[in-house]
Write a structure and sequence with these properties.
Structural class: alpha/beta
Distance between the termini: 37 Å
CATH superfamily of the largest domain: Isopropylmalate Dehydrogenase
CATH architecture of the largest domain: 3-Layer(aba) Sandwich
CATH class of the largest domain: Alpha Beta
Number of strands: 12
Radius of gyration: 21 Å
Helix content: 40-55%
Mean pLDDT: 89
CATH topology of the largest domain: Isopropylmalate Dehydrogenase
Strand content: 15-25%
Number of domains: 2
Shape: globular
Number of helices: 12
Largest sheet: 7 strands, mixed
Strand order of the largest sheet: 3-2-1-4-12-11-5
Order of helices and strands: EHEHHEHHEHEEEHEHEHEHHEEH
Length: 327
Amino acid sequence: MRVIIDAMGGDHAPREIVQGALDAASRTDASFTLVGDREAVSQCLGRADAEAGRFELVHAEQAITMEDDPLTAIQTKRRSSMVVALRLLAAGEGDALVSAGNTGALFSGATLLVKRARGIKRAAIGTLLPGAKPCLLLDAGANVTVTAEYLEQFAQIGSSYMREMHGISDPEVGMLNNGTEEGKGTALQIEAGGRLRAREDINFIGNVEASAVMAGACDVVVCDGFTGNVFLKASEGTGRLILSALKDVYSENLMTKLSYALVRRRMRASMKRFDPSEYGGSPFLGISRPVVKAHGSSDAVAFGHAILQAIRYAESRIGFDALESGS
């Protein structure tokens, strides 16, 4: 197993990216290809035995920034760490790729260079939502506009991912909507709902409201990328607000501080499941080879989890080539 790492992508590259790879290496027997500025990456790598053994360095003199236009960056920065890493994956020089860089550029590059799996009309970004139980949201931002057929395929590839990666034998699929009734939503949701209900291979439970998703209404929730990204950002903001409010309550006075000392361990364990670093990254589902996007602000812990997720994804051998739409 070889994992290709975009070492220059992310807010804390290359230091936290390389440290994350070293941390992941301590928990797996995979080998790594670090793509980026050779001098900068070598300084972060530090250990001579790592470079000579399980770590290979591939020099890339450019880097794609978060401010770059995604498609333009892929086309013009051909010597960037991201593009070089994607080309290595496309050429079979690795089994999976992980990057914390520009999401749009990574998705565009994966689609153009690594290509979609045969039969897939649109790949999607999947994000595992913390809640009463893990729920895969897709699309989380790649496709602003979709068709009913795309949503149907999102349900298929999302079900395959949750079945293979999380051991859910018959994942329940919901469609994000403004009500649970069959006639709710725009013409898109109504048509997509009809297609999903007609599929015997998809365990479609119907429309789900945003409030029910985090409560564990389904294992997979599908929607267009615009709606999905808004939902995701709103959920993240709500989580931060709750944590901030709890911090204020427990730091109010001596009595509340003593109370926190008593429940601190249980509080940390409970809040850990809402920590993005525990969930790794977002897989690009429908791409022919595993690509995982780590959060742009990932530290070493978060990036290490994203690498381990990518390894499990590659080992699962999830295949999307056999998927067919109901049309």
